Protein: DNA replication and repair protein RecF
Amino acid sequence: MRLDSVRLSHYRNYESLELSFSEKTNVLIGENAQGKTNLLEAIYVLALAKSHRTTHDKELIQWDAEAARVEGRVHKRRGDHSQEITISSRGKKAKLNHLEQRRLSDYVGALNIVLFAPEDLHIVKGSPQIRRRFLDMEIGQVSPVYLHELSQYLKVLKQRNALLKQLSMKGGDETFLDVLTEQMITLAVKIVQRRHHFIAQLEKWARPIHEGISRGQEKLVLIYRSDTFSNDLLDVEGMTASYTQKFGKIKENEIRRGVTLFGPHRDDFEMEVNGRNVQTYGSQGQQRTAALSLKLAEIELIHEEVGEYPLLLLDDVLSELDDHRQTHLLDTMQQKVQTILTTTSVDGIAHETIKQAKLFHVKQGAVILEETSYKEIVGEKTDE
Ligand SMILES: Nc1ncnc2c1ncn2[C@@H]1O[C@H](COP(=O)(O)OP(=O)(O)OP(=O)(O)O)[C@@H](O)[C@H]1O
Ligand SMILES: [Mg+2]
Structure:
């Protein structure tokens, strides 16, 4: 699939902007603080109805404006469509082909995106919360029903925590707690199963990629971690039984502490390189390779699940990678995915993918399409 064009209105530092993209590689060049990341973020929001940088949607609206809007024209094998997201103080509105979607889970997935940014290193070395967010966002892209189940789960969890708190302070009848526990378990099983499946798929693709980037030196393994289950996937009955047993055992403890102590909202996944946890023992370079492998694996996973390649957004990552990893990444892009990348300069990047790219200059919330070629910019001599 590809994004043919976008239109931004009052989005961060963009008053209004219209752009058409090349179906291959697009490079956004600009100095710091000009709006490169803002533009990538807008595309991310268009696809996922959420920013990767903030959980406060209000920040996306241009200062002093009422509402921000991002529109896009998307080409897929089955046909073209338009999509649109509007953010105002009243909330979010999402439209597909001008039709408002009541549930965001009906909207997300129309455009698939893989974003790779320097902060993705935190997926490897950051807190479990960051990894859960990664899982939730990425699974949601390929199976929208997951987002629906997740929001149901979080709703029940909230209710259950409120009740536990009340019981811890004042005591009372526990019948309703048992009802909520049962509802929560049913949803938890679905969520954990989907996460297991996703992790297994991701590992299938990430392992050979990681081996390639590390020149055959490193074997990457992904492990889903839950207090209730091991990594071998149990069936629905088995999982339900384990949860039921677990919650039966800790019920008194939960009531005393006034909070839910187990469940997918506390799970995590681990990355091992050559048998050692890369989060704890990996070097900076190994952690970066692991993060890159995960992202490149996602491209393949989405292709497998959706039948088309996603759009790849790269924020300032080329300069962070050594030559070998840079080449690996650029080779992948060149072959199959539409890419939009940001950089402060294309100097020193001699790869064909960049040489043939469409260049955009970003300056103070405006974009000037650069007609001059890469060769003129970097002053390379041509034989023509
Ligand atoms: N809601 C907003 N309204 C108006 N301007 C905003 C808003 N949010 C952020 N900005 C401005 O957008 C500017 C550009 O941000 P952006 O992160 O896109 O820069 P960048 O080109 O990616 O820079 P860098 O190379 O440093 O990463 C910021 O300096 C900030 O002042
Ligand atoms: Mg930036």
